[in-house]
């Protein structure tokens, strides 16, 4: 029966496979070149890596990754539970406020934290009348941990929340009926059901932490991305940047391997579908006030403070800006390039999504999995690989929009493929079959039936890419054509010159425009709509 | 219905593509500027206004842009390179990427210390390293006589620096030339052991000194004048280490023309413009740097260049950025 659904796509398959293979080559080639460059460093390069300080960087990176992942889980899981399964007042409002942290780039957030909580920051000036002369230093590990955690917990919150909404409440009711209290039910029944989605969320957080460049640079915490950037930025040695990048890639591979092993050894809990009932919200009772306080403090730290500081800069500008910059141009450029990247990414993802959703052979799955490399590689590494490669071999692509778009698509394609694929699996293939029996060919069917039905999922993926490209820093810095200016680039350059108040305008516009992307995601999600 | 929506979406995207600026045009001067936008963009705009020459600029860090040019090799779109450090210019010169400049450009700069011996780069403005101190917390008598004194116990936890900053790193390169690698490493390690507070840039250091977060900081001389312009009573002042101390290095921001440039004529015009009286006056009055052309006097608020007892080195020799970054990394200053 299934095979008859699949057969019709076969004629398209070869084309799509060729296209996918092309995408895989385009994505992997620069990386291979990076490897060649790293090998070019030879023995001297090896000696460089085998120093004690490489260990320090590995240690710092791992420590940051672990603590951020744990903290994001401790924020994300309760937040997801409170806003999906309880009678928390205004829980949709809390959810949306909690997700607003996604529109704040980590580097921008980190700068606002220094301004707010620094030794002589805003908080200190408020406390000064009470004899507080200075606050403890925020730069370093603590600041990096705080800012990455508060701008990445949605990676945990979103999948966990989706899982909470999809689980069968019957299990929990059984648990209650045999005398478990609420905590025991949560720990012994709810949590194990969440395991797969929690694993994905934690993995995403861990990968993000390893790849983040902006926050660690602002907070001056020495992890791989910062060390790579130092080699690239302050010396003439590209080999060493490549070497460090390869070690970072190896580290992420180990992480992926460990995650796969852990997942293989656990029984993934499955819930019967068919009989699911409406979930009854848990009554918080005397936990209501603490729960509200928890949500409020997360929102305060993750959203109110960054927005507040940016608005404070906006209102209280002190510096005379020596170079007037057209904010209209910056905003227009940023939105255009982000829309374009989202469109290209969605278009590339569509056939690949069809391939794995309709013909999930081993080869097809491998082809698509290979493009997931972008999700694992830090933007900084992708950017350097593309610069080195095109500067040497493809000068006509160098410093062009296609290259910038290619960088974005390499990095964010997995978002598009993931959402497209899951949207496609929800479409009954019989509808496509009906179209064919009415005389439409494969392409017509794809365009007239499949795409419109999967439109909502495709749009969600596009919005996710849009949101991330808006905030993206290293790729934008390294790959932008000469004279092409964006909001994130502007924020970075004025922060480099220490003119924080000038961040007000571009920072505010960037968060505002990103919020539009977020609105599309939330609006497309039926569970947050009403 | 959906198809129409989609086509609208596609049309909208194509329209936005059309709006995006086009790069690499004919007759356009391409500049790679390691000098930040706020310090040079007004001059470039003026140049375009006066000459009609279209200019496109890639802003970045001095060393990164130099290494980018090396990476691009014969394909480099850059015509002119502007760096904030003679070392980066020296490195480009050593890689034989810079074209020889005509004498009408090099002769504008009188002091031979501020241009290359081979006439491949020329200084545009001078910048001194200095110690900024909080005048409420420190009296002039307490100030150290040498940069090397800051590792002393008396200065523990009182000093700010920017170990990732290019200007700081070229100062360390100078220290390596004068004192050798071992002594430089020892100084760096001493500074780290002394709880020296690290900042991302010079402005942040000056701000921290004014706030009293630290009492002194290692900076370029001109940043403090931005603060004076906002508030003349800013409680901070500059101290120049005496006696040819390495901490009083006078470096330059300079420029060269790439051998691979296809706009040699326009590039020359641009350099002549930057060494002209109006641009040099701009450096003196707006960025508070030292003009390098004799006919233009420096800002009266600055200590005259001749009074700064700068160490005796050839600025072109400050080109070993890798060696410097290595010992800075090893000292733990970046951790």
Radius of gyration of chain A: 24 Å
C-alpha-based Rg of chain B, rounded: 22 Å
N-end to C-end Cα span of chain B: 58 Å
Major sheet characteristics of chain B: 10 strands, mixed
The tally of helices of chain A reads 26
Number of helices in the DSSP assignment of chain B? 12
Poorly predicted tracts of residues of chain B:
18-24
H/E topology pattern of chain A: HHHHHHHHHHHHHHHHHHHHHHHHHH
The third-level CATH topology of chain A is: MetI-like fold
Q: Give the CA-based shape of chain B.
A: globular
Mean pLDDT of chain B comes to 90
Strand segment tally of chain A: 0
The CATH architecture category of chain A equals Orthogonal Bundle
Question: Would you summarize the structure shown here?
Answer:
The complex is a heterodimer of chains A (530) and B (335). With 530 residues, chain A is mainly α.
Blueprint (SSEs and pairs):
The complex is a heterodimer of chains A (530) and B (335).
Chain A: H1 2-6, H2 10-40, H3 42-49, H4 52-85, H5 91-99, H6 106-117, H7 122-127, H8 141-150, H9 154-166, H10 169-177, H11 182-211, H12 214-219, H13 224-234, H14 238-265, H15 288-315, H16 327-358, H17 362-371, H18 373-376, H19 379-393, H20 401-425, H21 429-437, H22 442-471, H23 474-479, H24 487-496, H25 504-524, H26 526-529
Helix pairs in contact in A: 2-14, 2-16, 2-17, 2-19, 4-5, 4-8, 4-9, 4-11, 6-8, 6-15, 9-11, 10-11, 11-14, 13-14, 15-25, 16-20, 16-22, 16-25, 19-20, 20-22, 21-22, 22-25, 24-25
Chain B: H1 2-19, E1 28-33, H2 37-51, E2 54-59, H3 62-72, E3 80-83, H4 86-94, H5 103-106, E4 121-134, E5 159-161, H6 166-179, H7 181-193, E6 197-198, H8 202-211, E7 216-220, H9 223-230, E8 236-239, E9 250-257, H10 264-274, H11 277-285, E10 290-291, H12 321-330
Parallel strand pairs in B: 1-2, 1-3, 5-6, 5-7
Antiparallel strand pairs in B: 3-9, 4-7, 4-8, 4-9, 4-10
Helix pairs in contact in B: 3-4, 6-7, 6-12
């Amino acid at each position: 029966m299934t095979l008859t659904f699949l057969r019709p796509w076969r004629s398209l398959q070869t084309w799509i496979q060729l296209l996918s293979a092309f995408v895989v080559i385009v994505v992997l080639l620069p990386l291979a070149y990076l490897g060649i460059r790293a090998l070019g460093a030879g023995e001297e390069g090896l000696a460089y890596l085998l120093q004690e300080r490489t260990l320090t960087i590995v240690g710092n990176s791992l420590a940051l990754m672990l603590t951020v992942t744990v903290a994001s889980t401790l924020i994300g899981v309760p937040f997801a539970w409170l806003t999906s399964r309880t009678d928390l007042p205004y829980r949709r409002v809390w959810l949306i406020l909690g997700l607003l942290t996604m529109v704040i780039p980590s580097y921008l957030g980190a700068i606002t934290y220094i301004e707010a909580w620094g030794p002589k920051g805003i908080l200190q000036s408020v406390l000064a009348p009470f004899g507080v002369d200075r606050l403890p230093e925020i730069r370093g590990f603590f600041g990096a941990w705080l800012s990455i955690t508060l701008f990445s917990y949605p990676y945990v919150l979103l999948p966990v929340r989706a899982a909470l909404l999809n689980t069968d409440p019957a299990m929990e009711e059984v648990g209650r009926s045999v005398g478990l209290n609420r905590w025991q039910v949560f720990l012994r029944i709810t949590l194990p059901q969440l395991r797969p989605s929690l694993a994905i969320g934690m993995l995403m957080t861990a990968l993000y932490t390893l790849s983040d460049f902006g926050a660690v640079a602002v907070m001056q915490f020495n992890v791989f991305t910062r060390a790579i950037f130092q080699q690239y930025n302050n010396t003439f040695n590209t080999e060493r940047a490549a070497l460090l990048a390869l070690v970072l890639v190896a580290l992420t591979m180990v992480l992926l391997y460990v995650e796969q092993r852990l997942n293989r050894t656990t029984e993934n809990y499955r819930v019967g579908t068919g009989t699911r009932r409406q979930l009854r919200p848990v009554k918080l009772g005397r936990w209501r006030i603490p729960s509200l306080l928890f949500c409020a403090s997360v929102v305060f730290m993750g959203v109110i403070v960054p927005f507040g500081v940016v608005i404070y800069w906006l209102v209280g500008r002190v510096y005379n800006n020596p170079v007037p910059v057209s904010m209209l141009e910056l905003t227009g450029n940023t939105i255009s390039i982000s829309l374009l990247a989202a469109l290209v990414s969605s278009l590339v993802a569509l056939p690949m999504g069809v391939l794995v959703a309709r013909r999930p052979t081993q080869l097809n799955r491998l082809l698509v999995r290979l493009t997931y490399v972008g999700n694992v590689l830090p933007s900084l590494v992708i950017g350097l690989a593309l610069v080195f490669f095109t500067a040497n071999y493809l000068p006509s692509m160098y410093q062009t929009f296609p290259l910038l778009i290619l960088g974005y698509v390499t990095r964010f394609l997995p978002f598009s493929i993931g959402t497209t694929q899951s949207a496609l699996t929800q479409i009954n293939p019989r509808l496509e079959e009906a179209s064919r029996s009415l005389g439409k060919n494969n392409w017509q069917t794809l365009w007239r039936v499949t795409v419109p039905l999967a439109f909502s999922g495709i749009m969600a993926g596009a919005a996710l890419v849009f949101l991330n490209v808006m905030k993206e820093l290293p790729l934008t810095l390294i790959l932008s054509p000469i004279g092409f200016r964006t909001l994130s680039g502007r924020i970075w350059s004025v922060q480099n010159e220490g003119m924080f108040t000038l961040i007000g305008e571009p920072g505010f516009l960037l968060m505002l425009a990103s919020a539009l992307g977020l609105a599309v995601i939330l609006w497309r999600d039926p569970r947050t709509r009403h | 219905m959906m198809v129409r929506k989609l086509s609208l979406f596609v049309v909208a995207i194509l329209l936005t593509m059309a709006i995006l600026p086009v790069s690499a045009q004919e007759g356009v001067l391409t500049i790679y500027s390691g000098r930040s936008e706020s310090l040079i963009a007004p001059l470039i705009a003026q140049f375009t206004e006066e000459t009609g020459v279209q200019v496109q600029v890639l802003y970045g860090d001095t060393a990164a842009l130099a290494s980018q040019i090396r990476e691009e090799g014969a394909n480099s779109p850059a015509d002119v390179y502007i760096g904030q450090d003679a070392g980066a210019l020296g490195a480009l010169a050593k890689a034989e990427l810079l074209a020889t400049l005509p004498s009408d450009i090099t002769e504008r700069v009188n002091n031979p210390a501020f241009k290359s011996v081979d006439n491949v780069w020329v200084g545009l403005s001078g910048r001194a390293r200095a110690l900024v101190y909080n005048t409420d917390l420190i009296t002039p008598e307490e100030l150290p006589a040498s940069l090397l004194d800051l590792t002393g116990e008396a200065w523990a936890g009182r000093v700010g620096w920017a170990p990732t900053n290019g200007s700081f790193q070229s100062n360390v390169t100078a220290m390596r030339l004068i004192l050798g690698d071992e002594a430089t490493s020892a100084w760096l390690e001493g500074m780290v052991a002394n709880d020296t507070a690290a900042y991302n840039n010079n402005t942040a250091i000056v701000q921290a000194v004014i706030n009293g977060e630290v009492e002194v900081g290692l900076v370029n001389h001109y940043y403090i004048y931005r603060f004076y312009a906002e508030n003349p009573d800013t409680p901070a002042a500059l101290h120049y280490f005496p006696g040819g101390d390495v901490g009083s290095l006078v470096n330059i921001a300079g420029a060269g023309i790439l051998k691979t440039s296809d706009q040699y004529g326009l590039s020359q015009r641009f350099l002549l413009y930057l060494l002209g009286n109006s641009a040099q006056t701009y450096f003196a009055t707006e960025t508070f740097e030292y003009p390098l052309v004799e006919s233009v006097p420096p800002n009266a608020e600055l200590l005259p260049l001749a009074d700064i007892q700068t160490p005796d080195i050839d600025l072109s020799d400050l080109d070993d950025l890798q060696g410097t970054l290595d010992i800075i990394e090893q000292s733990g200053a970046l951790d």
